[in-house]
UniProtKB/TrEMBL annotation, chain A:
Protein name (Swiss-Prot/TrEMBL): Na(+)-translocating NADH-quinone reductase subunit D
Gene Ontology CC: endomembrane system; plasma membrane
Catalytic activity: a ubiquinone + n Na(+)(in) + NADH + H(+) = a ubiquinol + n Na(+)(out) + NAD(+)
Organism whose genome encodes this protein: Maribacter luteus
Short name of one Pfam family: Rnf-Nqr
Oligomer and partners: Composed of six subunits; NqrA, NqrB, NqrC, NqrD, NqrE and NqrF.
Membrane topology: Multi-pass membrane protein
Gene name linked to the record: nqrD
Regions crossing the membrane: 43-62, 74-95, 101-119, 140-164, 184-203
Tagged with keyword NAD: yes
From TrEMBL, chain B:
Name of the protein in question: Na(+)-translocating NADH-quinone reductase subunit C
Keyword Zinc set for record: no
Name of the encoding gene: nqrC
Endpoints of the signal sequence: none
GO biological process, one term: sodium ion transport
Modified residues (FMN phosphoryl threonine): 222
Function: NQR complex catalyzes the reduction of ubiquinone-1 to ubiquinol by two successive reactions, coupled with the transport of Na(+) ions from the cytoplasm to the periplasm. NqrA to NqrE are probably involved in the second step, the conversion of ubisemiquinone to ubiquinol.
Membrane topology label: Single-pass membrane protein
Cofactor section: FMN
The protein's enzyme class: translocase
One Gene Ontology molecular-function label: FMN binding
């Protein structure tokens, strides 16, 4: 017996590829451009969004029948902001070091369009369990792109991964740098993320023709 | 018995209840945790001051490790010999000086009051450190830090932190490779308190030239870097009268 029914499994699988929040729905681009200069920041952001979107989707789904439709966006915003602030405060009191690392991500999470997008598009119309799976799926889909972009930007821009030099030392000219290789400073700045995301979209659409809109 | 969620009265009542619930939760959380959070911040300040004067637990090239929180109070009183408050010409000793809020003092200065400037005198292995707290603006939010000077006005160590700089770019001001570049630089240019500029194109990526008042900038973090330069030069100028009295010429 499978752990999840096929329909439920698709809630997790679809956002990873054919309905990816970044490359197909083009949501969450702002944070994908801003924080992917390093792999570590990408991973932290991905985990934070996984947490907030998973729980937020469940909360919104539980409240879906009592939220007045006229003010639903504000209610969603309050739910996500409250969740993030609670986590931030608890971390500040009991895990101060960790909270220092995460504090810069707090603002980015509250304004992340994927979170609002999933509340609006899915959690308002589905039960808590399905909403939870949808949240996890979309956060993973978002995280995968973040990690891929972060990997290439850090590798090509700084020659490191997770801060460890993998291509040699650019100043002492060891490793690849001995053969005249140079780090590409362009990869550090945000426009490079746009290009990497563009290449991912290109690869994805050339493998799956169904994704190409005909007009 | 379905509730009509479209009615205006329902919307207003829902909003009011929601605000009360959320407000209560957050207020309760904030007031019950604030003691612990303030204590963490206080210890962190001590850790930062000690870090700048080289009392830390760094291992290897990349790590930024403070004295552990359990030990910091003891280490702080062991290494920090004197805490001064400089108020115009008046200098007083106060062992709570490190708790002075620089932001409030800057606002007070704008209103025309004399600003209280805290300064910490540390002693490690017989060497005296003059540690200046700093506060400035980055790209998104505040940046702050501490710079430890010797009696020649040569930087012995720095610590920088920030409230919300971009991870991977401006946030890297608190990385070892950036902070370590400041050690050995002089803040004097002749007899002028010039500070240290975070400079692009100073053609010195290994930071071998120590008397140019410049360190190599971070790629992609121009505004944060400029903020650091401005913060250092403003801060040392605030303290320059005092620094002149201790400088060994």
């Amino acid at each position: 017996m499978a752990l999840l029914s096929k329909k439920d499994a698709n809630l997790i699988k679809d956002p990873l590829a054919d309905n990816n929040p970044i490359t197909i729905q083009v949501l969450g681009i702002c944070s994908a451009l801003a924080i992917t200069a390093e792999l570590k920041a990408s991973v932290v952001m991905a985990i934070s969004v996984l947490f907030v979107l998973g729980i937020g989707n469940v909360v919104i789904s539980l409240m879906r029948n009592i939220i007045p439709s006229k003010i639903r966006i504000i209610v969603q915003l309050i739910v996500v902001a409250t969740l993030v602030i609670i986590v931030d405060q608890v971390l500040k009191a009991f895990a101060y070091e960790l909270s220092k690392t995460l504090s810069v991500f707090v603002g980015l999470i509250i304004t992340n369009c994927i979170i609002m997008g999933r509340f609006e598009a899915f959690a308002l119309g589905n039960g808590p369990w399905r909403s939870f799976l949808d949240g996890i799926g979309n956060a993973l889909g978002y995280g995968i792109i973040l990690v891929i972009v972060g990997f290439f930007r850090e590798l090509l821009g700084s020659g490191t991964l997770f801060g460890f030099p993998v291509l040699g030392n650019p100043i002492n000219k060891t490793g690849l740098y001995a053969f005249g290789y140079e780090n590409n400073g362009f990869m550090i700045i945000p426009p490079a993320a746009l290009i990497v995301v563009g290449i991912i979209i290109w690869v994805q659409r050339s493998r799956n023709k169904a994704l190409i809109e005909d007009n | 018995m379905a509730i009509n969620t479209e009615k205006n009265s329902y919307t207003v009542i829902f909003a009011a209840i929601m605000v009360v619930i959320v407000g209560t939760i957050l207020a309760y959380l904030s007031s019950s945790l604030s003691g612990k959070i303030d204590e963490n911040k206080r210890l962190e300040k001590q850790q930062n001051i000690l870090y700048a004067m080289g009392v830390n637990e760094n291992v290897g090239e990349g790590s930024v490790s403070f004295v552990p929180t359990e030990k910091v109070a003891g280490e702080f009183s062991k290494y920090i010999k004197e805490q001064l408050i400089i108020e115009g010409d008046k200098i007083t000793k106060d062992d709570q000086a490190y708790l002075i809020d620089l932001k409030k003092q800057a606002t007070a200065a704008k209103e025309g009051k004399t600003r209280k400037l805290p300064l910490f005198i540390g002693d490690k292995d017989g060497k005296t450190f003059y540690i200046i707290p700093m506060r400035g603006k980055g790209l998104w939010d505040a940046i702050w830090g501490f710079v430890a000077l010797d009696d020649q006005m040569v930087v012995q160590g720095v610590y920088f932190d920030h409230a919300g700089e971009t991870p991977g770019l401006g946030a890297n001001i608190k990385q070892r490779y950036f902070m370590d570049d400041f050690a050995g630089e002089t803040i004097l240019n002749g007899t002028k308190y010039a500070g240290i500029a975070v400079a692009k194109g100073n053609n010195d990526p290994l930071n071998e030239i120590k008397d140019d008042n410049e360190v190599d900038a971070l790629a992609g973090a121009t505004i944060t870097g400029n903020g650091v330069s401005a913060m250092i030069s403003e801060s040392v100028n605030l303290y320059k009268d005092y620094l002149e009295t201790i400088r060994v010429k």
